[in-house]
Amino acid sequence: MRKAAQIAGAAAIAAxxxxxxxxxxxxxxxSKPSPSKSADGDKAAGGIDGAWQTQSGDGTVTLAxxxxxxxxxxxxxxxxxxxxxxxTTMLALQCNGNDTRSMGKVRRIGSTLSVDxxxxxxxxxxxxxxxxxxxxxxxxxxxx
Length: 144
What we know:
The protein is mainly beta. Helix content is 12%, strand content 42%. An eight-stranded antiparallel beta barrel has the order 3-4-5-6-7-8-9-10.
């Protein structure tokens, strides 16, 4: 049951991130990007915050990154976890199914986000345009 709640929470966070419904204000004042951020709001160090997509044999792969949190969906598989600095930027994810994309080295190359997954898979993601649909995973119920 705990894992189901974690997956549902991750999907909700990713949906909020991707729908653009968030706002940030403090005391009625709009917040301005900090000097460490680029003009489009990405982290200056890697510029990987946001929604990214690629196509694979499994279907559309959507990777949502916000700060140190990451969520990946492909088909009915949902992975959630952290962005880690281990001398290089790494994704450390826990998946509800196929763990092919559980650990990956991330590089930003121009407008592409390249991820070398630990099991040998390499994927190049493009920034998702517009509203991105995150598939709802099959979550276990109390009767399952």
